Amino acid sequence: MRPFVESFETRDKHKYIYDVETGTVVPDNDVLSLVIKKIGEDKKDPEISNELNRDFPKTIVEATLKFVRRWQAAYGGFLRNTSVLGHSHAVSEAAVYQEYDMGATYLMVLNLTENCNFRCKYCYLSEEYRFTRNRTESKMNFETAKEAIDRYFSYLERIKKKIPNKKAGITFYGGEPLLEFPLIKMIVNYCREKEPVPIVFNMTSNGYLLNDEISKFIVQNNIHLAISLDGSKANHDRNRVMPHGIGSFETVLKNIRKFMQAYPDYHDIGIISVFDVRTDLRENVRFFEENKLPRIFFISEVASSNTDYYDRFSREDFDKYNQTYEELLEEYIRAKQSGERISNYLEMFFEAPLSMTIIRLRAKDAKSKLVPYTNTCVPGMKISVRADGTYDICERINATFPVGDVEHGINTKAVCEVIDEYNKAVTKDCKNCTAVKNCPLCFAYTNGDRCFSIPDNFCKRWRKQQLMKLSAIYTILEKNSHAFDLLQNSLENSFAFNA
Amino acid sequence: MSHFRLFPDVILIEGSCKGALYFLTEGRVIQLGELESRIMSQLRIASIESACNDFDQIAVNKLIQSLVEDALGTIYSEDVYSESYIPNMPFELRGYLEPILIIEELSIELYPTDPYKIWTTNPKVVFQGCNSCIPTENPVKKDFLDTERLCSEIQSTAELEIKNATLHIGDLRNHENDIVSVIEILRKAHPEIDVGITTYPEEISDKTISLLKKIPNLQVTISFNAEVVEILSVLTQTCNSLSNAGIPVTLDAIFPHQDDVNRYSVVKDFATNFGYQLRTTEIIHSSTEYIYSIDRGKSRIEKTDSDAFYAKQRYSICQYGKLAINAYGEIGCCLFGKKTGSLERGIYDWLSNNEHRKGWESPKRCAGVCESCENRFACVDCALIEQISKTEPDFLKTICAYNPFSGIWEM
To answer: Which of B8, B77, B351 sits opposite A164 (nearest CB)?
Structure first.
């Protein structure tokens, strides 16, 4: 048996132990960590008591010993057998099919076009990233979309008999999907006629083409719209530019405002905001506070895999960014501790990364046996359809892992190969990792040229970040035990997918 | 300053007057006295020194000492945050990530009759009526459900996972072929399903037994009037005949509460002697009648491990996973509870409109005075009593003598 825990301290230097197996955080009065350590050294209880009774009250030592022993026996917590091996068996097509048969598929992403009216400098579908497709003139025709939808609906028709409350989604993606607005109209109309279960439509757009007609159609059909806006004019226009390098901020902001003015009660519109180390975070906090805009759905960092994007930044850029980050984090922690109102940008900036640690898996949360580690979905939960009808497992994965097409449906053999490759390359050491309950790696995060790999030093860095997140979370909880109640509620509601 | 914290597998639940410690790993519920409860509440938010100022110092130290000695908690020199063990992430997947639906128990009422004249006594609650074949309402009211319609609806559920089904049959003798058809359709649609029937002893004849014998793996529950003195001799004969035919038997004793004689122990001894499992159904007419078959005292508090504790926070343990269709084609979670659907609209319509969740997700913490009771995650009752207690709190006294506002068992 060896300890399977991590230790961290809050800002007030209070010590805690994170028990990996149960996902429980337990305060440490030094006795707890010493008891765990000594049991891990194979010492017997009388020996441990004798050693600790010199420095701590006997009753406290005895209580802690009893607690650790029962916790280990009942929940497998604190200590684990050292002979635990990683996941290595190959998955079968039958197992993949069984997963789909349990209703796993919930989203179809239609990549309507590979073209875009923007030339964002961090676009992962550009020369900036290795292995991904670049912009092309290729676009989906209605027949391809219809074939994909028919297949999807036929599956949902079958699944709703097992899951009467099944809901599903269709996402319009690109390139810029609004370049193909007539196609969107045809698809929505077709789906509304045929939908076997309530379908939620989503669209991710740069917002440049959002006009009165499109806005009206979006509202009439309750399409959940995510518009990319990186914040203030300076922050946005630095990266989100048109083909001739002209910034897109003014038009996008004007379109969003016009939409909000016309449909003030429409709440299924939100902002996606991307940042890098040169983003002026404080300016963005101010910008979103001063401008009445839709809520921010999420804020993400420019991806760092398979790209040299970050090479353009200087040491000073990183230092300045890190300093601002730390200052804002302190502001966020103080505000959460006291229950003060927090700006939407600040809250999303910190809460989204923290949320994965806050809602970490617990002892009895079972992941799919196909991909038991990391945060990845099971291929096929989401079907991303390219413009030519080829299936991918995600819109964010590169083009080297096709898993079927509209003509033949999902190729379970190809799915098995993808999973096997992933499990071999990425998850072989996960079982013994203390971040096993909240690892963010997935197919898209680790994909290379027909293979997967963990970015250099990722695991070590992530484990360190996890401890920093735990420290921030429990620093907040020490002063405000209800600080994250709303987050948990909103996460539960977000899964409800109200159509 | 020093602070006392419970270990994560020990949870303090506060009631109106007192509290209880739920020791999840051992499944034990530890009742606290009124002073202990107040001290524990204080220790949640303040230091031990502060509690000693607010309460008798000796009492505070004695309580902490005993909790530490029992390894229920420990002492820290700082004001640390402590959280409870939770077996799963604190939310359910719904909507597009919803898992497949499992019906644990499908109850179907068929051809109800009222040989014990239950409905002529104007009952207020049929407690644990689901164990019996008592009519869910006065059976002379309406036309019964068409069996063909029922069979067609059962066939349509073939893709649903249904684990058990019980047919609650009044008039078995005149509808034997229909009953066999329903069972055959159930088994065809759900090959793994366990099927049982519940009927009156008067319905069991040699002819019935020879028919039931032909149905493999059928569990028969005999639902009898326990207040009829000579019933046990009739029952002996019926049970023997069924047992001789190789048909497993369970007993359901109906107590119509038509006199003041409590015959529960007699019936219980009978069941024990013959090795039959005994269930009960009791007809309650007023809040002054007590349930014969359950203890109203402290033994009501059940062993509560972490699974039970968290399940009881979210679900009605009585109704969870249940779907019931009465003889008129109305659908609900419980045969005797509120019906919110109909076979006319279909089972899928009822399920896809989330009607089942209304019953499944009515935990005891939402039931009348139970929400103020520290034992609310440690006991379980027929949901009908919980429902009626929302409007008529006195009815809870029929099953439970605890007054959470005084903290006293008022036996």
So the answer is: B351
